C-alpha cells in the first residue's frame, strides 16, 4: 500500500508539480498581456477585429530572476537565429560554366523588399535583388567563396504599444549572414526559414528588466495584473534552471 501511495505521489508531481509554471498578466491600457511560461516571457497583443500584425506574439524572451522582485528578459540574438536557420543545397546540373547560379528562398516571407549581398567580404562586389514573395535568383562569379547577405523590407513595421508609433524590433537586416559557397557546384540554393513576416514585427528586447510585486508586473511604463492568484511565477522555476 505504501508503495502504491508513493507511485501516486510521483505521478501527481509529474503531472502538476513537474509541469511548466504559467502566469498570465493583463493590462488595462489595451488588449495587451504578458505570459510567463517556465523560463520564457511572451508579450502578446490580442487582435480582436482588424488584425494589424501577422502574429499576436510580439516578443519572445528568456526570463531569469535576479532579485526578489526584479527579472531580466532578453530576446535571442536575431543574427544568430538567422545564421542557425541557414540551409544551403547544391546542384551540379547547370549549363553555366563560368559563373554560379544562386537562388534565395524565404518560405514564410511575403513582405516585399530587397536581398542585399556582398561577395567574399565587405570590400567585395555588392549586389541587391528585388523580392516579392517568390524565390529569386541571379549569377555570381565562379571565384566566389562566400556571400554575406541581408534583407531590407519595403515596409517598416511600426508598433503602437507600449510606446505609441515607435520602432521596437528589427527594421532591416544588414548584410551579416555568412554563407559559404562551394564553387565546384554550379547552382546554389539558399534557404532562410527564420526570415518571416513576424520576424520584422517582433520586439527585440536586449537585457531589459521587469518588476513583479504581488499580483502586479511592471514593464516599460505599463502595469499588468495577474489573472490568477499565487506566488511569483519564477519562485520555483528560477532555482532549478541549472538542473
Keywords:
2 domains; Lipocalin; disordered N terminus; single chain; four-stranded mixed β-sheet; disordered C terminus; eight-stranded antiparallel β-barrel; elongated; 16 strands; mainly beta; Immunoglobulin-like; 243 residues
Please tell me about this protein's structure:
With 243 residues, this protein is mainly β. 10% of the residues lie in helices and 42% in strands. The longest helix is centred in the N-terminal third of the chain and has 16 residues, at 2-17. The model is unreliable at 1-19 and 235-243 (pLDDT under 50).
Task: Describe the structure concisely for a colleague.
With 243 residues, the chain is mainly β. The chain is 10% helix and 42% strand. It has helices spanning 2-17, 78-85; strands spanning 22-27, 32-37, 40-45, 57-65, 70-75, 86-91, 99-105, 113-119, 126-131, 136-141, 146-153, 173-180, 187-192, 208-213, 216-219, 222-226.
Amino acid at each position: 500500500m505504501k508503495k502504491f501511495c508513493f507511485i501516486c505521489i510521483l505521478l501527481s508531481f509529474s503531472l502538476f508539480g513537474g509541469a511548466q509554471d504559467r502566469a498570465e498578466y493583463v493590462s488595462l491600457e489595451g488588449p495587451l498581456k504578458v505570459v510567463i511560461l517556465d523560463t520564457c516571457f511572451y508579450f502578446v497583443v490580442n487582435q480582436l477585429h482588424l488584425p494589424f500584425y501577422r502574429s499576436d506574439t510580439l516578443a519572445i524572451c528568456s526570463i531569469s530572476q535576479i532579485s526578489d522582485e526584479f527579472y531580466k528578459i532578453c530576446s535571442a540574438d536575431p543574427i544568430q537565429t538567422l545564421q542557425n536557420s541557414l540551409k544551403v543545397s547544391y546542384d551540379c546540373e547547370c549549363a553555366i560554366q563560368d559563373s554560379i547560379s544562386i537562388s534565395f528562398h524565404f518560405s514564410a516571407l511575403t513582405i516585399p523588399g530587397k536581398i542585399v549581398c556582398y561577395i567574399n567580404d565587405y570590400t567585395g562586389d555588392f549586389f541587391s535583388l528585388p523580392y516579392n514573395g517568390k524565390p529569386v535568383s541571379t549569377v555570381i562569379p565562379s571565384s566566389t567563396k562566400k556571400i554575406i547577405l541581408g534583407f531590407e523590407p519595403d515596409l517598416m513595421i511600426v508598433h503602437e504599444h507600449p510606446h505609441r508609433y515607435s520602432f521596437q524590433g528589427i527594421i532591416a537586416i544588414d548584410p551579416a549572414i555568412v554563407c559559404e559557397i562551394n564553387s565546384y557546384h554550379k547552382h546554389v540554393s539558399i534557404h532562410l526559414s527564420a526570415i518571416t513576416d513576424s520576424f520584422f514585427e517582433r520586439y527585440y528586447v536586449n537585457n531589459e528588466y521587469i518588476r513583479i510585486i504581488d499580483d502586479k508586473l511592471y514593464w516599460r511604463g505599463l502595469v499588468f495584473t495577474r489573472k490568477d492568484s499565487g506566488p511569483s511565477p519564477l519562485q520555483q522555476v528560477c532555482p532549478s534552471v541549472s538542473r
